[in-house]
Amino acid sequence: MITLMQQTPSMLSRSFVNGLVKSQYVPDNPVDALKLDLTRPIVYVLKTKSMTDLVALQRACKERGLPDPLTPIKVNGVIIPSYVCLDNPAPLFGQVKDKNVFFSEFQQLLRLHKDDKVLDIQLMPVSLFWGRAPGKEGQVPLLSLANSISPSRLRKTIIVGLNRKDNLVRFNKPVSLRFMADQHGSDEKLAQKLIRVAKIHFSRQKLAASGPKLPNRYQLFEQLLRNPEVKKAIQIEIEEHNISAQKAKKRANGYIDEIVSDFSYKFVKNTSNFLGWIWNKIYSGIKVNNAEQVRKLAADGHEIVFMPCHRSHMDYLLISYVIYNEGLIPPHIAAGINLNFFPAGPMFRRGGAFFLRRTFKGNKLYATIFREYLSLLFSKGYSVEFFTEGGRSRTGRLLPPKTGMLNMTLQAMLREQSRPITLVPVYLGYDHVMEVSTYVKELSGANKKKESVFQIFGIAKKLKNYGQAFVNFGEPINLNQYLNKHVENWRDDINMPVEEQPAWLNQTTRELANQVMVNINSAAAVNALTICALILHAAPHKALSREILVKQIDSYLKLLRNNPYSEFSTLPENSAEEILDQAIALKKFTVREDSLGQMLSMSYEQAVLLTFYRNNILHLFALPSLIAAIVTEKAQTSIEEINAKVYQLYPLIQAELFLKYSADELSTCISDTLTEMQEQGIINNCDNVITPVNERLMSLKLLAASIQETLQRYAIVLTVLEHDQVIERTKLEDRSQMIAERLSSLNGVSAPEFFDKKVFAIFINKLQELHYLSDAGTVKADKISPLANVVRGLTTLEVKQTISDVMLSQQSSEV
């Protein structure tokens, strides 16, 4: 029988923890997040025996609905503790004598499983951190957490006293002892292995929670100046600009000072408290999904590169806040030099920001210093974050990715192979983005406003409930695994001279960047505002009755629940009625009552603003919308024809909206979508011929309308190409933009990006890639005409006539 370690906590311990200690729990809801089975016994595993830790754990378990760690478990007549520890506290002087003092307890747990083949105890590791400051390189602070793996009772008392408001309780996925015993037996070796693995686990958890030690900023300057590549670049600067070594070194120092971060844990901790207050004022909640996979990557020793989409200046603050409150140390963030102004710049810098210019072109010294600094961050083990779009999206849809930072990340990986580098795409969504009205003005031709302290921190005067914010971590991309799959013999280029680049690097970077964007979109969060904006934008006159809108919300959610776009995307759990009420509460629509009930509508101005939110999730419905458009084109359509048209158009839409389905998956996706439409009673399928159900025709047309603006843009470009068999790229974009602008005015298109040249450029690039159009601008008529006919067949007669009329008008003006 195990000797009980359970002790009754003193009244002083309980009073101290319950009255003075402020704890944070990760995950916040461990039962759901870790999928715990509370019908099976749980034994908690702690790093060091500590009554303060046990009382803090007891409080956490009580608040989160977990079994009490101080209540023993009875197993087949044997009383066992509900917790085990790996170490005793270190003595005040000297070292721990017996490092396996609790070995017998692990052995006894395994022996119980040998005697009872049904028993399945869950071993749940729990890490308790009292402060998470990583410490400084070259310093050994007396009370540093980093220097206190198993602190003495005196040191523990001081640490707890100083950090009572900075306690983190980190629950981890439990290990099944039944599985371990069945797979590996229940002898002494397994007990030793469990202890060894647990110690490694706790060590990695500490590193993930606090991060590596921080460099002294002055020493970092010296380290960069001593870097061989930086020294070479300084010498080139001297020779090319005919300046003194002192002046070149001073210039290099200036660049380093401009670039490097000045990370401060104390600042991050204090800012987190302030931001928590801000978020509670601005938003009713922050929904975080898929964070457990990120914690696992950090605990497994991965170098994490966070790659979020960019919606707002709030992104910088939101991501760092979320990562910190998910039990990880915030990353070093690549921020645009436009944000390096007083007082925001120094504050961002202390929060982990390092700054980069929009272009490195023509400045080899700056480029070298930046590249070597980034490589240094990776080599020291700091997580990094950069926005792969480069700047904020003004339209709500993802921008084409910038590849410079990712290219440098790959180069750093080729030079430093000590830890695996994993990219983590991050989807950010908001019920309210404060800059949207500014974005609309910029898309309409207004000059971009220069960032200022009033713009960044102007939220203070706008503090009110803006709904929710959403942070979804997407499917990670392990760079080693990605290169193994896509680049043959890439390891041959490890440690290649810095001035040289592998032949495969640029193309692989572009493909990898595109995959990151696909993974961001695959982690999209559907919420009340985005789904209502999507539906109302599709409605004639941008207005619907409450009854129809509720039915359409329900239909769309069934479409995504029964055919999930991705395991990383999220949907609201509420009913359609509740979702609509949430959207109405945001006061972004016009709501009025008449004798028949409630009507919801958008004015033109409201519709323009809400385009941003619609575009956040447009990609999720792009394929169903395209299928619906094909089905509504005629009275009946064969599945063969639907497949043919989708296969023809999908690559073009995929490039624009970063859709995830491959050509091999497309047929199954089409079939599943048609099956779901049939289940909902929207269409009939008779001998593989699809016909709309008249009673649900409005629902089908609303779905079909979501892809119409995209198809109209395609129709414009293809009509121009049919008319001008040879045309310069610039002229094609200009002409298409002018037609789109006129079409927007005449047909009431409220999307500002409808006539955005960047969107046309994506389509034209894909036409060239698919050989509809040569690089020289020569049209391949035998391919363009069939495509144009398919696209025009899916647009309305009014749209086709408008395009034709504007084309004639342009020709007349040119003559």
How many strands in all?
Answer: 22
Name the poorly predicted regions: 1-5
User: What is the CATH architecture annotation of the largest domain?
Assistant: 3-Layer(aba) Sandwich
Q: Judging from the principal axes of the Cα atoms, what is the shape?
A: globular
Determine the N-to-C terminus distance.
Answer: 100 Å
> Into which percentage range does the β-strand content fall?
5-15%
Structural class: alpha/beta
How would you explain this protein's 3D organization?
The protein has 815 residues and is α/β, with parallel strands linked by helices. The protein folds into four domains: 11-210, no CATH class; 280-521, Glycerol-3-phosphate (1)-acyltransferase, CATH 3.40.1130.10; 528-705, no CATH class; 708-814, no CATH class. 52% of the residues lie in helices and 12% in strands. Strands 9, 10, 11, 12, 13, 14, 15 and 16 form an eight-stranded mixed beta sheet that branches. Strands 1, 2, 5, 6, 7 and 8 form a six-stranded mixed beta sheet that branches. The N and C termini lie far apart (100 Å).
Provide a quick synopsis of the model.
With 815 residues, the protein is an alpha/beta fold. It is built from 33 helices and 22 strands. It folds into four domains: 200 residues, no CATH class; 242 residues, Glycerol-3-phosphate (1)-acyltransferase (3-Layer(aba) Sandwich), CATH 3.40.1130; 178 residues, no CATH class; 107 residues, no CATH class.
Keywords:
4 domains, Glycerol-3-phosphate (1)-acyltransferase, alpha/beta, 815 residues, 33 helices, disordered N terminus, 6-stranded mixed beta sheet, 8-stranded mixed beta sheet, 22 strands
